[in-house]
Write a structure and sequence with these properties.
The chain is an alpha+beta fold and 312 residues long. It is built from 8 helices and 13 strands.
Amino acid sequence: MRALLRIPLCALGMLWATGLAALDLDLPGAATMTRERIEEAGTYRLPIGPYNDGQLPVLEVEGHVTQQSWRLEAQGMTTLQIIDPLRETIRNQGYEVLLDCSGPECGGFDFRFNTRVLPAPDMFVDLFDYRFLSARKSGEESKPDYLSLMVSRSGATNYVQLMHVQPNGGAALSITANRNLPRAGSDTPLAKQLLAQGHIILSDLDFSTGSSDLGPGPFASLQALAGFLKSDPARRIALVGHTDTVGALDRNIALSKRRAASVLERLVSAHDVPRTQIAAEGMGYLAPIASNLTAEGREANRRVEAVLLNAE
């Protein structure tokens, strides 16, 4: 099923005056709007360049500001496949693209956190897999019309945020889509194991020896865990760190807790998971899953687990 976004660029009278046509953005898959904010007279700092040298180039645009986020169930589709037809439609409607970039090209973390984005769980932004587009359309007898799109994903679920700034008190966005979707985030292998067994080892995490610094990733386990948590704000987990038996118990407990805390911070900062849904604890070497007499066993014991505290 495809969701059709019908966006009136101006009030009906202005459409007649300027000859502007309605803009239809056709989203693939089943879609549901998760949040809408409208400012009758607002300001939006529209990004027009990537974040660089501590600065984000923006245009401060004023007018009727509409901000919407959408969740798309589009199995197997990439962020590029989502944004490509939207870009083409925008250009065909006479918009000039001002910025068109992907996560690292945009500026990664710094671009994301200096850009206006609706909070989770309504909008999810994977810092390693998002795309952003801003555009402007100049009317013959009116101020320019501005819009921006941000597309990201979590597992099989894609997220789209649309910002639209219309001059002269334009009309609000009018969008139709399928709103009767199943709850996301519970059908991944990680989610199924968490719900069935109550805990899971985050086996793809990478820490330096003796350090609590989590590697840069991206880590598929954290992306899946973030989707699981954000699909239901009532869910809570404990991240529990474990070590091998090398060193004193108190030092290992402290190290294991710092590692769990590093994972917590990554889920919050990079995946927009609410901090209130996560706790961090450390067990040191008190709960081994293999023998500490071999290198392989010690490696298996050095781990971080997610423990489900409640299922609903």
